[in-house]
Amino acid sequence: MRMIVEAPAARWYKREMSLSDGDSLRIFVRMGGCGSVVPGLSLGVMQDKPVNPALSEVVEGIRFYIEDDNMWYLGHKELHIVYDEKHDDISLEVV
Q1: Is residue 24 within 8 Å of 49, Cβ to Cβ?
Q2: pLDDT digit string (tens) for 55-81?
Q3: Cα(78)–Cα(27) distance, integer angstroms
Q4: Could you count the other beta carbons within 10 Å of the beta carbon of residue 50?
């Protein structure tokens, strides 16, 4: 299990959420959305402070993390946080 955050994706989050170096974004499991791993669930993103992170990656000065209690969603897969330049949007892909 690991998380890969593309630099353009981190820059997009910094711009869209007015983040500064040293801020943290929590990736969490939420009800609804278009999740591809567990029907009816998807991943959300919010600014928060880590408590018990199982995965953590600092990219462009922003710490992206997943708390230990949400790791079940990934299983033994990887999370890729990717920027889509054509649509100026983000994709969270579990592969």
Answers
A1: yes
A2: 999 999 999 999 999 999 998 999 999
A3: 13
A4: 13
